[in-house]
Design goal:
By secondary structure, the protein is mainly α. The chain is built from 20 helices and two strands. It folds into two domains: 48-327, Orthogonal Bundle (ABC transporter involved in vitamin B12 uptake, BtuC); 332-438. The protein is 71% helix and 1% strand. The protein has a two-stranded antiparallel ribbon with strand order 1-2. The chain is globular and about 60 Å long. GO terms for molecular function: transmembrane transporter activity.
Length: 480
C-alpha cells in the first residue's frame, strides 16, 4: 500500500505540464490579437470582405450547427461513448423541427428537432451501453438509417410536394439592436485600420442574430460549467476516464453514459433544427451536408474542450462564409501561412530553458517568413517569387538539420520539436502558394475542416487528449 502511495505521489510531482486557464484578460488579448491579424491581412491583401460584418454574420450562422453537433459529441465522448452518428441524429432533427413547426409554430419546431435527436441518441445509447455494440458500428448504422427514415417520413408527411421537402416554415425571431447596428456599419465603411474591423465584428453580432445562436452560445458556457464545475459533470467525466474506478466509488456508470448520449442526441437534433428553421426555412433531403462529421472534426480540433471546440467551429464556419465573398478566401492562404509559421516558431521558442540552440531555427523561421512576405509582392515575377519562397523553406530545413546534428544539447529534444519544425515549414509552403496563385479551388475550401484536423493530428498530436475510456465497451460489474 505504501509503495503504491509513493508511486502516485511521484507521478503527480513529475507531471511536466500544467493546464493553462483561460482568464478573461487572456481571452480579451487573444481576441484583440486576432482582430489585429485580420486588420493586417485586410490591408495587405486589399480584400475588405475578410473582416466585414457580412462575413462575421455568415461565419456565425454557419458555425452554429457545426458547434452544436460537436458539443453533442463532447457530451457523449466525455461519458466514454464515441458518437459517429451525429449526422444521422441531425437529419432526424431536421425533419422533426419541420413537422412540429408546421403544426404548432417555430418554437415547437425547435422542441421537435430536439425530441427527434433524442430518439437517435436513445437508439445509440441502448445499442452501445446496454447491448455492447461497437460504438463506431452503431454510429455508422445511425448515419445510414437516419437519412432513410427522414426521407420516408417527409414523403409521408408532405406527399403533395415534389421531391423530398417541406413547405416554407415559420421563422424564429431575430435580434437587431436599432441605432447601434447602423452606426457600426457606417464606421465599418471607413476601412480604418483595426477600427473598422472591430466595428464589422460588432455589427455582425448585433444585426439579424438568430435566437438559436444566442441559445447555442449559452449551451457552450453551460456545458463547460456542468461538466467541469458540478458533481454531475465530474461523475459523467469519470465514466469516460475510468468507468471501473467510478463504479467502485458508487457511480451508476450506465445511467451517466445514457445521460451523456441522450444529451448528445438532443444537441445534434437542435443543430438539425437550426438548419431547418434558421438556415433554410424548410426541410429538404440531404440538408445536413456532412456537418455532423465536421462537428466531429471540430471536437478533435478543440481537444474535447467546449471553448476550443467553439473556436474550431467558428474557424470552419468562417472558411465556408468567405468562399462566397469574391476572392477573400485567397487572402486567407496568407493568414494560414503566417499563423503556421508563427505557431511553429512559438513552439520552438517554448522548449526547455538552457537550450539556446533552438533559437537558431526559430530565428530562421522568422527570416523565412519575411522572405515569404517578400515573395508575395506583385512587383516581382512569379519565377522570382517562387525561388525566394522555396529558398527560404530550404534554408530553414537545412540549417535546422545542421543545428540538430551539431549541437549536443539538441540531441534530446522533446517530442514536440519535429512537429513544431514541420508546422513552420508547412506554413512557408502555404505562403509560397499564396504568392504564386490568384485563387483557391472551391473543393479545397470545402475540405478545410478536415485538412485543419489532419494538421492538428499530425503536428500537435502530443497535446491532444481524448477521454481514456472513450469507445471502450464496458459491462457492469466487470471489476468484481
Amino acid at each position: 500500500m505504501s509503495m503504491g502511495l509513493q508511486l502516485d505521489t511521484h507521478v503527480v510531482a513529475d507531471t511536466p505540464q500544467r493546464r493553462r486557464h483561460w482568464t478573461p484578460l487572456r481571452i480579451a488579448l487573444t481576441v484583440l490579437g486576432a482582430l489585429i491579424g485580420l486588420s493586417v491581412l485586410r490591408v495587405a491583401t486589399g480584400e475588405n470582405d475578410i473582416a466585414s460584418s457580412g462575413a462575421v454574420a455568415a461565419a456565425i450562422g454557419l458555425a452554429v450547427p457545426i458547434g452544436l453537433a460537436g458539443l453533442g459529441g463532447l457530451w457523449s465522448e466525455r461519458a466514454g461513448v464515441v458518437n459517429i452518428g451525429l449526422e444521422g441524429m441531425m437529419i432526424l432533427g431536421c425533419w422533426g423541427s419541420a413537422a412540429f413547426a408546421l403544426s404548432w409554430g417555430p418554437w415547437a419546431g425547435l422542441i421537435g428537432g430536439i425530441l427527434m435527436g433524442l430518439v437517435g441518441g436513445a437508439v445509440h445509447a441502448v445499442a452501445t451501453v446496454y447491448f455492447g455494440v461497437d460504438h463506431v458500428v452503431s454510429g455508422v448504422a445511425l448515419n445510414l438509417i437516419g437519412p432513410g427514415a427522414a426521407k420516408y417520413l417527409a414523403a409521408r408527411t408532405w406527399p403533395q410536394l415534389q421531391g423530398v421537402q417541406s413547405p416554407q416554415l415559420p421563422e424564429l425571431p431575430k435580434i437587431t439592436v436599432p441605432g447601434l447596428s447602423d452606426g457600426l456599419r457606417s464606421l465599418e465603411g471607413t476601412h480604418l485600420f483595426l477600427v473598422s474591423d472591430i466595428a464589422g465584428l460588432l455589427a455582425g453580432l448585433v444585426t439579424d442574430l438568430s435566437m438559436v445562436t444566442v441559445i447555442a452560445i449559452g449551451l457552450v458556457v453551460a456545458s463547460w460549467w456542468v461538466l467541469w464545475q458540478t458533481p454531475f459533470g465530474l461523475r459523467l467525466r469519470s465514466c469516460g476516464e475510468s468507468p471501473a474506478a467510478a463504479e467502485t466509488l458508487g457511480v451508476d456508470v450506465y445511467r451517466y453514459k445514457y445521460a451523456g448520449v441522450l444529451i448528445s442526441g438532443a444537441l445534434a437534433g437542435l443543430a438539425g433544427s437550426y438548419l431547418t428553421l434558421v438556415a433554410a426555412n424548410m426541410f429538404r433531403d440531404g440538408q445536413t451536408g456532412g456537418r455532423g462529421y465536421i462537428g466531429l472534426a471540430a471536437l478533435i480540433f478543440g481537444n474535447w474542450r467546449p471553448g476550443s471546440l467553439a473556436s474550431g467551429a467558428l474557424m470552419f464556419g468562417y472558411f465556408d462564409a468567405i468562399q462566397l465573398r469574391g476572392n477573400a478566401i485567397h487572402g486567407v492562404l496568407l493568414a494560414a501561412g503566417v499563423a503556421l509559421v508563427a505557431l511553429g516558431t512559438a513552439a520552438l521558442l517554448r522548449r526547455r530553458r538552457g537550450r539556446q540552440a533552438e533559437v537558431l531555427p526559430a530565428l530562421l523561421a522568422t527570416s523565412a517568413l519575411a522572405l515569404g512576405w517578400y515573395a508575395a509582392s506583385d512587383s516581382a515575377p512569379t519565377a522570382v517569387r517562387l525561388f525566394i519562397g522555396f529558398s527560404g523553406a530550404a534554408l530553414l530545413l537545412g540549417s535546422t538539420i545542421v543545428a540538430f546534428l551539431t549541437r549536443r544539447e539538441m540531441l534530446h529534444l522533446p517530442a514536440g520539436f519535429p512537429g513544431a519544425l514541420a508546422m513552420a515549414a508547412f506554413g512557408l509552403l502555404v505562403t509560397c502558394w499564396y504568392a504564386s496563385s490568384e485563387s483557391v479551388p472551391s473543393q479545397l475550401t470545402g475540405a478545410a475542416p478536415y485538412v485543419a484536423t489532419l494538421l492538428v493530428l499530425a503536428l500537435a498530436s502530443q497535446n491532444l487528449r481524448m477521454p481514456a475510456a472513450d469507445g471502450l465497451i464496458y459491462r457492469k460489474g466487470e471489476t468484481h
